[in-house]
Amino acid sequence: MLNSQLIGSFISKLRKEKDLTQVELADKLNVSHQAVSKWERGDSVPDIGTLVLLADEFNLSVDDLLNGGKKDEKSFKNVGPIVYNIAKKDTHKAADLVNNGESELEDLISIAPVLKTSSIDSVTKNLDDKKLSIHHIGQLAPFLSEESLEELFNRISDDDSYSIKDIVQLAPFLRSELLTKLLMSKRNSLSIGDIAHLGPFLGGEIDNLINDIPLEGVPWKFITGLAPFVSLDVLKTLVEKAINDEISFNKVVAIAPFLDQETTDKLALRISGQKAESHHLSALAPFVSKQTLGKIAMSVELDDHSFIAIAPFLGEGELGKLVEEADLNSISPSALANLAPFLSQESLVKLITKMKS
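User: That's the sequence. What structure does it adopt?
Assistant: C-alpha cells below.
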C-alpha cells in the first residue's frame, strides 16, 4: 500500500535536488504550495493526475515515485501503466492491463487511495470476473461506490465463495438489505458474536437475524454491544440467555437505558449481593424502581454527591431509612440541607434529633 511518509520524503528530496521552492514546484504542477507541503510532510499523497506530472517533472517512472526512490524490494513494479491510463481517463485500457496480465490486480488495489471513486468504479466494471476474488473485493470496498461494490460482489459470489468473515469485512460498505440477505444465507453458521460485530450496519433486520439463531449462554460483551440496536423484546431475550456469572453492576448500568424498569430491577436485584459502588447507584437511579434503588443503596457507603444524586429517585421512606442509618459525620451540612426537600416530615424530625444528640 502507499506509504505517504516515504513518498513525501522522496518528493522533498527531488525538489531540493532541482533547487525548487515548494511554491515553484506547485506552480509547475498547477497545485497550491500547501498541497506540496502536505505531500512532503506525509500528510497526503498527490492525486493520480499529479503523480503523472510529478514523474514527468523529475524524469522518473510513477513506480519509482511511489516506491520513494527505493531500488531494492520495490512494492510497486508495474503500477505506472495503470496510472497513466486512468489519468488519460482510459479506464477500459487500465482494466485490460490487468485482464491481460501486464499488471496485477494488486497494483490497482495499491493505488486505490489516490483514485477517484468514479475512476475505480469504471476500471473494476471492466475487469474479468476470473481475476476477482472475495478477498480483492474486500480490499477495494472502501474505495468503491455502494452500487459498484454490490455489482462486483454479485458478479462473483455464490453461497460457497464467501464466509461470514468476508461479510463482516464488507459490512460498513453494503446496504443493510443486502447485508441481511447475505447473513441469512449463512444463518446456519451465524453466531451472536457475528451479529454483535455487525449491529451498527444491520438496520431493522437485526431482530429477525437474532431470532433465527440458537441462543444459549450469551456473553455479556455481546449483549452490551447489541443493546442500542435491538428491540426491547430481543434485548430481554438476550438477557435471559446471558451467562449469569458474567453479570456485574457495570454491565447492568451499560444496558439499563435500553431496558424496561421491570427487567432492570430483576437484574439489579439478582446481583445485589455483589459490592456496588456509589457511582453505580447514580447511574442506575433513573432506570430502577424506588424500592430496588433503596435496597441496593443500603449496602453502599454513600458520599454527599451520591446521596444528592439518588434522592430525587427514592421514595420518602427509602431515603429516610438511608439517612437514619447513615453516619452523619460523613455527610456535610450542605448535603443534608439539599436532602431535606425529599424527606418526609417524620424523617426530617428524626434527622434533626439525631444531629442534636
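The chain has a mean pLDDT of 86.
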